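Sample pair:
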Amino acid sequence: MPALTLFTALLLTALASLHAADASAKPNIIFIYADDWGWGDLGCHGNTWLKTPNLDRLASEGTDFQQFNVLNPVCSPSRTAALTGMYPARFSVHQHFADPAQNHQRGMPDWLDPKAPSLPRFLKQVGYRTAHFGKWHLTNAQTEGAPKPEAYGYDEALVFNGGAGWASADLHATAANTVAFIKANKAQPFFINAWIHESHTPHVPSPESMAKWKHLDPQKQVYAAVITDGDNAVGTILNALKAEGLEDNTIVMFSSDNGPEHTAAKDAPQKTDPDAQVTGYDTFYSVGETGGMRGRKRSLFEGGVRVPFIVRWPGHTTAGAKNDATAFSAVDLLPTLCSAAGVTLPADYKGDGENLLAAFNGKAVPRTRPIFWQWLGMKSEPDYWPRLALREGDWKLVMTDDAQRVELHHLTHDRAEANDVSKAHPEIVTRLTQLALGWKATLPTAPNPECLSKQAIPAKPRPPFSGATGSNVPPEVRARAFTRWDTNKDDIISLEEYQTGLKGQADLEARFKNFDKDGDGNLTRGEFVGNSPK
């Protein structure tokens, strides 16, 4: 072979090897995001009756971050934070995306702004193939004109809880679709959101998992079965990475969008979810656990916003470690993963998170920026009244909008938030209150008009969820309100419980009497849910 030809061949081989090495240096990233899966719903978190062998395996091979917070206690805003690295309130996403009438009444857009910063879009810029499989819920199935996933930077997507007219993927297909994408794209770096349905209602357990837990009572059987189905999906993805020889260069993350759902006092007819186009078991079977933390889904206390976060990245995360020092949050995911992938974020990106890649690499890194929450959904006693919250270091302050009611907790000493120490630390309360109110003042007061559907809105939109008392409120909404307000779980709402549930609203005694058809001073479920007021 002539010298020049030989030199050219060697050069091309070297360049190809360099390119291959550069590609392999970028880790694949898979984010498995569960739905309503409580911190205490894992075997490795001490659960005594739920079995999660695949998640336990992931934790034994990676690091279990035990102080991870989502940035809202319900689905859509929680997912907004993970995608954008910014607080969802900055986009006026305060609650889950519902139909346009409800969204507009809540001061929300009808979809997440596609111009918002986006983790998959940043990763695409450095050569990643990107995909989203499973739950979407960054719009609503009753909403026309919503941007599809490709507008946010995804090369491929098969979703449920999408927009009006979208094809809906099967609830149980998320893992299979993820595996197919892994096989098709294994020669280049990829990023996948695998957002599974479990353990959100309607519960649709597989027959195999139901048979496995037939020795449990029916309530626990259903929940154990859906947890098993979700855990099996995790195992399917982990096994696919191993089969393709990719597990050593893949960051696998598992988390949940908020704490566990409420448990209804009594069984109810099966629930149909029009967004996901599925029917299954309702919230009587939602018996998830918070691991002893206060509050559940829809609460700014830790039980509503502290969720599992397990990360496996061989050669980086410490196998079997429990990181209880780093206060990680969902807005930190974007800068951390971009750093891992070699992405230089644009100078005009104004994210709310910080790069905690050192924590992925085994360091007990303290987060230096405060964490803020705003909640505009239901407000009731004892755990759902806070509208603002702030964490700085180990201190967490929860408060009403006007700061007339506050609680202060030291999370290192009181993870359960059982002891309010605000009176003992007035100077800390004052400083954190000022920070929280200052942050609130930076938030928009109305959604971006470009993110509002142009479809016709009914002349009489449904009232806000927190009221749940008007004659045009759907029975399923009243049923959820009844379950929340029935605090002693006797299937009766007293006047005191009614007033507590609707604290601050007008004419409560008169409204109560409208429902109390037999005049006995109590509301049965039939009076409140099954019938309209007089």
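The chain has three domains: 23-367, 372-433, 462-530.
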